[in-house]
Amino acid sequence: MISPFLVLAISTCVTTSLVPEKEKDPKYWRDQAQQTLKNALKLQNLNTNVAKNVILFLGDGMGVSTVTAARILKGQLHHSPGEETRLEMDKFPYVALSKTYNTNAQVPDSAGTATAYLCGVKANEGTVGVSAATQRSHCNTTQGNEVTSVLRWAKDAGKSVGIVTTTRVNHATPSAAYAHSADRDWYSDNEMPPEALNQGCKDIAYQLMHNIKDIEVIMGGGRKYMFPKNRTDVEYEIDEKARGTRLDGLNLIDIWKSFKPRHKHSHYIWNRTELLALDPSTVDYLLGLFEPGDMQYELNRNNVTDPSLSEMVEMAIKILSKNPKGFFLLVEGGRIDHGHHEGKAKQALHEAVEMDQAIGRAGAMTSVEDTITVVTADHSHVFTFGGYTPRGNSIFGLAPMLSDTDKKPFTAILYGNGPGYKVVDGERENVSMVDYAHNNYQAQSAVPLRHETHGGEDVAVFAKGPMAHLLHGVHEQNYIPHVMAYAACIGANRDHCASVSSSGSSSPGSLLLLLALLPLGILF
């Protein structure tokens, strides 16, 4: 039976949809379009500077539908209808689409995609930092098939480098920046099969500490993978799942410290209080591991023990920007993906809004004149919202109608598959009987699965700064790091790069023009 109050709420929602008064005047829309046109015309003056700094923001699972829903949520959190709101990434002048398939998968995973947008090479699902010649879980197919990342290219060029994530620091996305593994799940040696260990493969946490020993900033979760088996966690003393996992008995935190030069200041921290107490001017190396596994969802975050993504990004940039040669920073909003997998759209979208805030924080601390910033996703999800909802409808609210088939209400947000599939007395669950605005509400899905799946459609790429115009149209995902490297004059493709002038600025575009004019004698 449908509650009469629900029917009233739905009908009221339609009739009282908020239309801002200014939007009723055609002049508002024409003026807005003309200003957008003026801004677009300015883009004809291309920014061909050399990028001193490179920042890559990766929203794990942040498909286009997630971006749109996060935009609406951001606006509604500021008491606006939401649809007209601009995310920080919306303000980037260049937008492209990225084809996300793995070499062996139509719908990809986060490991093969990370290898593409960090190493410039497409790979098989489940593998990180290796080419498609490596088969998942087959250690003996790894050697000789390793591929390096844009983080390594930046480090080799003398730049400072950093990794910030809301997942484990040895999770799929960050691991492709430094590791070469036939299996993304080899977090520590505890998760590896004996065969792989006997063949000499190393776990991802071990590789984090040994492959590139001078990564200046590492922040995220994953504490338990750094300590010997059953070592009690510093924060969750009675939680057995938080205990150390390593079978080799190594304390990777001690190893990390031992690799740092004595005259440098290195800091290992595990909580937000310690992070905010740091003076970045006196920090050369920072390792912050704030949870045994992944960090908490933003909605669940403990403000004492766990920093926000924005806070980690701010500290990272302050430390990395001390290098006169610049820096590369990888930032992952990794739990967008986890929220979707669990069917918890509210958690996923709040993660996306927090990542957008971090994008704004980074933008305020850098300049488009010398910093290329790219925002993208590794893949999408089977997440959607629709149902002819009126303007200003809560993004987590109901559609303004009942199903014309089962006569029950439904939320605007739905999943193609996942754990939200529920049948009560042989029929679809009546969402008016549950708290669909709860942080952990699992939106209804068409197909029952314990974990919702990725989506296979293209994802957006937003870019600003030097050479950002090279990200345009529809690209293979592995094109992205090649653009970042070209812009920063790092990696293998540096023939276009001019010598850095005494002022510290240079333009590869200007050099190309110079080379074109020389044969004509125009300069003499």
From TrEMBL:
<feature type="binding site">
    <location>
        <position position="60"/>
    </location>
    <ligand>
        <name>Mg(2+)</name>
    </ligand>
</feature>
<keyword id="KW-0479">Metal-binding</keyword>
<dbReference type="GO" id="GO:0005758">
    <property type="term" value="C:mitochondrial intermembrane space"/>
</dbReference>
<dbReference type="GO" id="GO:0031214">
    <property type="term" value="P:biomineral tissue development"/>
</dbReference>
<dbReference type="GO" id="GO:0005886">
    <property type="term" value="C:plasma membrane"/>
</dbReference>
<feature type="binding site">
    <location>
        <position position="332"/>
    </location>
    <ligand>
        <name>Mg(2+)</name>
    </ligand>
</feature>
<dbReference type="InterPro" id="IPR017850">
    <property type="entry name" value="Alkaline_phosphatase_core_sf"/>
</dbReference>
<keyword id="KW-1015">Disulfide bond</keyword>
<keyword id="KW-1003">Cell membrane</keyword>
<feature type="binding site">
    <location>
        <position position="171"/>
    </location>
    <ligand>
        <name>Mg(2+)</name>
    </ligand>
</feature>
<keyword id="KW-0378">Hydrolase</keyword>
<keyword id="KW-0106">Calcium</keyword>
<keyword id="KW-0460">Magnesium</keyword>
<feature type="signal peptide">
    <location>
        <begin position="1"/>
        <end position="17"/>
    </location>
</feature>
<dbReference type="GO" id="GO:0098552">
    <property type="term" value="C:side of membrane"/>
</dbReference>
<keyword id="KW-0862">Zinc</keyword>
<dbReference type="InterPro" id="IPR001952">
    <property type="entry name" value="Alkaline_phosphatase"/>
</dbReference>
<dbReference type="GO" id="GO:0004035">
    <property type="term" value="F:alkaline phosphatase activity"/>
</dbReference>
<feature type="binding site">
    <location>
        <position position="454"/>
    </location>
    <ligand>
        <name>Zn(2+)</name>
    </ligand>
</feature>
<keyword id="KW-0472">Membrane</keyword>
<feature type="binding site">
    <location>
        <position position="378"/>
    </location>
    <ligand>
        <name>Zn(2+)</name>
    </ligand>
</feature>
<dbReference type="InterPro" id="IPR018299">
    <property type="entry name" value="Alkaline_phosphatase_AS"/>
</dbReference>
<keyword id="KW-0091">Biomineralization</keyword>
<protein>
    <recommendedName>
        <fullName>Alkaline phosphatase</fullName>
        <ecNumber>3.1.3.1</ecNumber>
    </recommendedName>
</protein>
<keyword id="KW-0597">Phosphoprotein</keyword>
<feature type="binding site">
    <location>
        <position position="173"/>
    </location>
    <ligand>
        <name>Mg(2+)</name>
    </ligand>
</feature>
<feature type="binding site">
    <location>
        <position position="379"/>
    </location>
    <ligand>
        <name>Zn(2+)</name>
    </ligand>
</feature>
<dbReference type="GO" id="GO:0031966">
    <property type="term" value="C:mitochondrial membrane"/>
</dbReference>
<comment type="similarity">
    <text>Belongs to the alkaline phosphatase family.</text>
</comment>
<keyword id="KW-0336">GPI-anchor</keyword>
<feature type="active site" description="Phosphoserine intermediate">
    <location>
        <position position="110"/>
    </location>
</feature>
<keyword id="KW-0732">Signal</keyword>
<keyword id="KW-0449">Lipoprotein</keyword>
<feature type="binding site">
    <location>
        <position position="337"/>
    </location>
    <ligand>
        <name>Zn(2+)</name>
    </ligand>
</feature>
<dbReference type="GO" id="GO:0046872">
    <property type="term" value="F:metal ion binding"/>
</dbReference>
<comment type="subunit">
    <text>Homodimer.</text>
</comment>
<dbReference type="Pfam" id="PF00245">
    <property type="entry name" value="Alk_phosphatase"/>
</dbReference>
<feature type="binding site">
    <location>
        <position position="60"/>
    </location>
    <ligand>
        <name>Zn(2+)</name>
    </ligand>
</feature>
<feature type="binding site">
    <location>
        <position position="341"/>
    </location>
    <ligand>
        <name>Zn(2+)</name>
    </ligand>
</feature>
<keyword id="KW-0325">Glycoprotein</keyword>
<dbReference type="GO" id="GO:0050187">
    <property type="term" value="F:phosphoamidase activity"/>
</dbReference>
